[in-house]
Amino acid sequence: MMAAEAYPSYPPELSQTQLSYLLQNLMDYSLSHGLAVRPAESFISKELSSNGALATHAPVTLFPSPFSRSCLEEGRAVQKDYNELYARVSGNEEWLEKIIVELSEVDDFMARLYKVHLDVKAEGFVQPLSLGLFRSDYMIHNPAEDPNALPVIHQVEFNTISSSFGALSTRVSELHRHLARMGAYPSDSIIKTENIPVSPALPELAKGLAVAHKAYGSGGEGRSTAILIIIQPGEKNIFDQRWLEYELLERHSVQTYRISLPDVPKLTKLASGTRALIYSPPQAPNTQIEVSTVYFRAGYGPEDYAGEDDWAARTTLERSKAIKCPSVITQLAGAKKIQQVLAVDGAVEEFLADRNVSSRVRGTFAAIHPLDQSPAGMAARKLALEKPDTYVLKPQREGGGNNIYRGDIPGFLKSIPESHWSGYILMELIQPPALENTIIRNGGLMSGGVVGELGVYGAILWKDGEGEERGKGLKEIVMNSEAGWLLRTKGRQSNEGGVAAGFGSVDAVLLVD
Amino acid sequence: MMAAEAYPSYPPELSQTQLSYLLQNLMDYSLSHGLAVRPAESFISKELSSNGALATHAPVTLFPSPFSRSCLEEGRAVQKDYNELYARVSGNEEWLEKIIVELSEVDDFMARLYKVHLDVKAEGFVQPLSLGLFRSDYMIHNPAEDPNALPVIHQVEFNTISSSFGALSTRVSELHRHLARMGAYPSDSIIKTENIPVSPALPELAKGLAVAHKAYGSGGEGRSTAILIIIQPGEKNIFDQRWLEYELLERHSVQTYRISLPDVPKLTKLASGTRALIYSPPQAPNTQIEVSTVYFRAGYGPEDYAGEDDWAARTTLERSKAIKCPSVITQLAGAKKIQQVLAVDGAVEEFLADRNVSSRVRGTFAAIHPLDQSPAGMAARKLALEKPDTYVLKPQREGGGNNIYRGDIPGFLKSIPESHWSGYILMELIQPPALENTIIRNGGLMSGGVVGELGVYGAILWKDGEGEERGKGLKEIVMNSEAGWLLRTKGRQSNEGGVAAGFGSVDAVLLVD
């Protein structure tokens, strides 16, 4: 069931000459403005690229994608509430524990992370401040069965660690604005600079890090302070990270250092007593830098931990006095399961007391129905059996089985005992508008049906309780801001030919009313 | 005869770890800030790079090179005088004619260019304004035989067309400043940000073009105006050009278009009567753009003219109402022969009436002695025979033979009849300070003895006489400014091992007193 093309005359058709002109300008602008990545090995062999002397343009769309102005506004407007929600969730361990323990049974990675948190908690935390650079991801929901309904945003996931693409998001909106301004798009198209806002993600995320750095205060024993970025070796998306470093240095005079988890034991130590995290750069081994903030751009998945040494490294960082972006408990709060539990009636409301606020947050959730014997559950059972076309059936326990889509739902339910139905939830499928675009990647083009995902960044610095009060509720929000957005555009899953599914790119919003 | 190392403890020695840290940071900063070129085919095959999706860092030095503060100041201080000198030379055809006619006998390219000028002159020029974006190139002269002499700059050549590397010059000074600021150089080295000024070449050259564009006025019949850049197809140094375009668009709201000489007949025409140059972009063939300024980044050498069609194209541009940067006569004024003639006593003084000004200009000339029977000539003959080690013997007629260096001079003079000696001039060899540095190119390193060449940019817009008055002296200087600098560093010619001669790079000045 594919929605009709939302903007049938978009993108504008180009002659071969127009396409070639647009492409040249896109390539040159991207490559000169650091809208770039290190080339994939499938594109440029390791031998040629190993010295890091090459860059290629980031995967981008040729055109900005039409995006509902009210949807962008809604996503931005709700971000500070989301920041607060997840900060409060992180700070409420009683609430979290039950879910994480259950999750740990089926997810070893979550279990291991939780152990790090509990170990450090047993010893006692020395840093009450936590930084979150979050990203809330949405798709536009525009149900085909109701052509008069206004488009709304529905949340896909909430990221509490390593939210990437902020800098490239700023750069790609500048790219599309530039192309519009210089006349690379046909002059009769709807692509005008005034409808392509520049995402402030790069300056805003850097500002978030700078605020944390400053809040840390000065180093002990006259040490200078810096931010330590935890990276994956061989990162291809390095320029997205570098821009934050440049912004921090140039605009905030904050130094940064990059380190991978395996290097943590060699290059860092904790000062006895204060547990200040001391970093000695390999290029200046006699220097002692005190780390104000540990910013994770790695460590978000199990593949980043090769063995116990890496877990020990993560534990060292968590034990330290440095502000963590994020702390382990905040990383755990980003589990999909938490998102699901928050969608249950009353959950969000526990954390956001103001009804206007909690209902605005709830308004961005996709509908989730229990399939138990409550009145809501009974109504949902009827939906699942009779009108399953816009739903997905998911097992309650993460890792407990596969999702069942649309028309497969009634048959599946009938194949299992009715007493097991309450182990599932019924989720509304998000129905994004059908769009067309061309994605360019490694210099190659793919045109066809695409789907966009909006990410809205947030930056929040908060203070947890100290000592016995840790984990018993957030104490103070020091800084809370919306921090720009990202539009990621990829090939539609059920697309025949054209852009392959998952062939992703960064994109700019072309605001439409 | 190699001078002793000028800064024996420079550049600082690096450990392997320090080098690798510096390199990574240099690569990433260059590639994200457009300090880049398209990779050479010797590095990346044409198949991989043909779609323009790759960039590599520009060839740069690892360290900024020590450069005398007073020499940079002198070069900058004299640039406006040089701008005026060459504008006045361009406007004085009586003076130029004799030299160019003589030059034309041995140089077909000069002859052909001069024919273009004469053809257009016969018809009459319709644009009194000319733009010069010049670059005066110097080497530091620091004679080894006089260790107490202050270093001075001596001119190598004066470029009146396609002066390149302005944007990369701005970017490389930003690069070295960044590396100094972030701590990529050893902290006990003399490399400090306050001694690495940023060259304003990029904004200043763009401003020069913008001033010309504005002075052109509005287009006829409601046409919008733009700058047309004449380019070589397949330009590898494209980002150096693109930055000017971005600066023009973003800071001055001036549109630019790129075109190669062979495309001129297809895409342009002259409006009848006004001879306004009308450009129709291939990507918008129904649009008529009036060209305010033709900016040549090609056409400077014979290899840019494949045949009569390209000469016809150049003629069309010269005939047009557009302001030329430069006009053909200004290009001719940049011949090496003109530089030589200007060095003769009284020549500069013909154009720059103020003695302070003309002597300041003359102060940057390398000493040139006639070998005729004048008293000066007789003294020079003695020098040539007895102390030839710091001289080069050059035939008066360009293209008339090879240069004779140093110790070969006495033997050569004795081998020819004394009556022929006046056909030669004796030029002082510039003795630059011996420096060491590392040049990085295509990701590969070459360390060793290097020599630096300073280029100082200038921008000047002037008005020639109209009608009968054309060529009889410049009428008015509309704008005249110094426009930043460039330091190019290459391997020393007689270097044993290390940096190969001509292995050039862009560099930043590290000011020393």
TrEMBL record, chains A, B:
Binds 1 Mg(2+) ion per subunit. ATP binds at residues 157, 336, 394-403, 405, 427-430, 453, 490, 496. The keyword Magnesium applies. Its EC number is 6.3.2.3. Substrate binds at residues 135, 161-164, 235-237, 241, 297-300, 488, 499-500. GO terms for cellular component: cytosol. GO terms for molecular function: ATP binding; glutathione binding; glutathione synthase activity; magnesium ion binding. Residues 226-333 form the Glutathione synthase substrate-binding domain. Keywords: ATP-binding, Glutathione biosynthesis, Ligase, Magnesium, Metal-binding, Nucleotide-binding. Pathway: Sulfur metabolism; glutathione biosynthesis; glutathione from L-cysteine and L-glutamate: step 2/2. Its cofactor is Mg(2+). Mg(2+) binds at residues 157, 159, 398. It catalyses: gamma-L-glutamyl-L-cysteine + glycine + ATP = glutathione + ADP + phosphate + H(+). Belongs to the eukaryotic GSH synthase family. Homodimer. This is Glutathione synthetase.
